[in-house]
Input
Amino acid sequence: MSTFARRVLPWAAGAVLALAAGFGGTMLWFAGGFADRHIRSYLLDHPELLPAMVENLQHREAQSRLQSIRDDVATPFPGAVLGNPNGSRVLVEFTDYACGYCKASVADVARLVAADPELKVVIREWAIFPGSEEAARWALAAARQGRFAAFHDAMFAAGRVDDASIAAAARAAGLDLDAARLALRSPEIEQELERTRAFAAQLGFTGTPSWVAGDQLIQGAVGERALAAALAGTRTAAR
Output
């Protein structure tokens, strides 16, 4: 890194933080004596650098949020996995059965799984839409029976979330219905739903679908290409 870059980066980071803090933060920052006239002049002449600086800062903050919980986030509720359960490439999806964008992403994930025998897709049931928590509970009950993928696909194929569609998806997945009903309010499923809510809050996710691929946090139905690009080169120890 050049001497100029070493001088610019700390100053620029201060500038971004000051701007984020608003007028008061900017005044304090200048009053604190951190402004270097030459660097300030350079950045004022090149304002196109600021979006990249902000993006880089946000990326670093996201990495920091993820670092402490990375392994936990990538460790699925037993059975709540698509693709290769022992795969060395891991994609984590936070999803909700009542979310239209999640439904639109089903085909993207299926194509990624078909293209990569090493892909393990960890599904985190984040029930944020009204009425969807019951479907999430049934999905985790299906995972306990080794029927998660079948229930997951049938539930999204139904196109709606209500008692009838949940029951139909459970039958289509071949669940032991009595065993599943007993599991719905089990401590394990309660804890998993709460754990996923906590992970989503810590990672700063605001809606579904949201994704973790390597050190990248992604929000929205970004499509197969964007997910594949995020996954490129990301390999972890299989769990």
In short: Residues 151 and 170 are 6 Å apart (CA to CA). The chain has twelve helices and five strands. Strands lie at 81-83, 89-95, 119-125, 210-213, 216-219.
